[in-house]
Design a protein that fits this description.
Radius of gyration: 28 Å
Largest sheet: 3 strands, mixed
Number of strands: 3
Order of helices and strands: HHHHHEEEHH
Helix content: 40-55%
Strand content: 5-15%
Shape: elongated
Strand order of the largest sheet: 1-3-2
Number of helices: 7
């Protein structure tokens, strides 16, 4: 009965195992992601794509909508009130009586940009003491802390944009 050893052991102890063992290469086939599948199998590709089509989430103006976020605004379920108003800017007001102001959805070019902006401002509100109290690093000066804080909020908007993109494609 032949015993097996790993290739590294064979190489490391070459002199000792050279008389009793022989190297045998074993080829293994590892499946790869076929990147030209749509060109090679167009009918199967269309059938596969049709199985993963998300429902069209459009409002009465034909803009992308997220019913859960709309309900969250309408029913005031967020950690602070969110006020959609006719405005040219979105912001989060800190401190006592904190709230979020966002322009009306119709003021945006797309529904995706409205929700991205909304989630960005919602991310600001999570840093407030007494809410979610995101960790703050105390050894940074004020400018560096603000940059870190803004980066976190930009990432929130980015991931929302990415999710919207993935649903479309």
């Amino acid at each position: 009965m032949a015993s097996r050893i790993h290739g590294d052991v064979y190489v490391r102890f070459r002199g000792r195992y050279a008389e009793t063992c022989r190297r045998k290469a074993v080829r293994r086939c590892i499946p790869s992601l076929q990147t030209n599948y749509p060109e090679v199998q167009p009918e199967k590709w269309e059938k596969l794509k049709s199985q993963f089509v998300p429902p069209a989430l459009k409002d009465e103006q034909g803009m992308y909508t997220m019913p859960l976020l709309d309900a969250l605004i309408r029913e005031r379920q967020w950690i602070c009130p969110i006020y959609p108003r006719e405005s040219d800017s979105a912001y989060y007001r800190r401190g006592e009586g904190c709230h979020i102001i966002v322009p009306l959805k119709g003021q945006f070019d797309t529904g995706e940009s409205f929700y991205s902006t909304l989630l960005h401002e919602m991310a600001h509100s999570t840093g407030e003491v007494g809410h979610l109290e995101r960790e703050k690093v105390l050894e940074y000066d004020e400018d560096q802390e603000f940059l870190k804080y803004s980066l976190h909020n930009e990432q929130t908007g980015f991931f929302q944009d990415l999710k919207s993109y993935l649903h479309e494609h």
